Amino acid sequence: MPTSQQFLPFCLALTLLVPLVTKAQTVVGEATTAVAPAYGAAQAANRNGDNNCHPPIDLAKPQFIVGYGSLMQTASKRSTEPDAGENLPVLVTGFQRAWNTHGVYPTCYLGVQRSSGAAMVAALYRSFPEDGKLSADAREIDYCRASVAADSVKMLDASSVPADSQIWIYVNKPETLKAPDEGHPIVQSYVDIVIIGCMELQQRVADPEFDFVEQCIKTTAGWSKHWVNDRLYPRRPYTRQPQAFQIDQHLQRLLPRLMESVRIE
């Protein structure tokens, strides 16, 4: 059985250890207390960042979106938003459309930036929020949703701009803003979607003299020699893209030199 002399070193060590443990618990507690506000601040910053990129919507008002790229084609739009309203042709002032967006894939996409002297033709459609959110927010991950003033939108189908509504457009995030290059070219499969959308909208234009497809091309900046034909069968495109001939006619008429330089990929 241990003697009192044998217990003495153990008791002394325990006496020294208790304050250290207590101090360590205090330090851990202080660290936890400090981390909680920091975590909350980070969450708040994320929320604020999201609000800056996707401002809150007023659910009491009809929601409309200006589509200027793939959203102009009905089939493309309905692939992610099947309940969206019909596309209507519009002329939007104060925004410049351009080939200026590098996404997660090695492709250059269309984007817009605010520009006081610019105008572009586009589509306007009604979006129906789900759980307080617009479906296009998830689709347009490389863009931020920005408000559009009603007086910046002119309807081209002889209708009126929806009264007391919120109108939105997706603008470039600064970090994605880049022109086409060798590694991120314009791709024909995406151009096809855009031009088909323009051709669809042409059918709704009230003025028979207004060439909506031509204006789609002309009000788009940044057409580039960095452009590849990635159609599935580029030498016989009509086998998979029935409207290839019409699309190419529009492009060759308005962008003849660039069309000559498009390479098959």
Q: Could you provide a short overview of the structure?
A:
Helices cover 38% and strands 24% of the residues.
Sheet/helix structural class: alpha/beta
Query: Helical residue percent?
Result: 25-40%
CATH topology of the largest domain: Hypothetical upf0131 protein ytfp
Averaged pLDDT: 85
Main beta-sheet annotation: 7 strands, mixed
How does this model look, in words?
A hairpin with a 5-residue loop joins strand 2 (88-102) and strand 3 (108-127). The chain folds into 2 domains: 17-53; 63-264, Hypothetical upf0131 protein ytfp (Roll). 38% of the residues lie in helices and 24% in strands. Strands 1, 2, 3, 4, 5, 6 and 8 form a 7-stranded mixed β-sheet that branches. The chain has a 3-stranded parallel β-sheet with strand order 7-9-10. The protein has 265 residues and is an alpha/beta fold. Helix 4 runs antiparallel to helix 5. It has helices at 4-53, 74-80, 135-139, 188-202, 212-218, 244-254, 256-261, and strands at residues 63-67, 88-102, 108-127, 143-147, 153-155, 166-172, 186-187, 220-221, 227-229, 263-264. The longest helix has 50 residues, at 4-53.
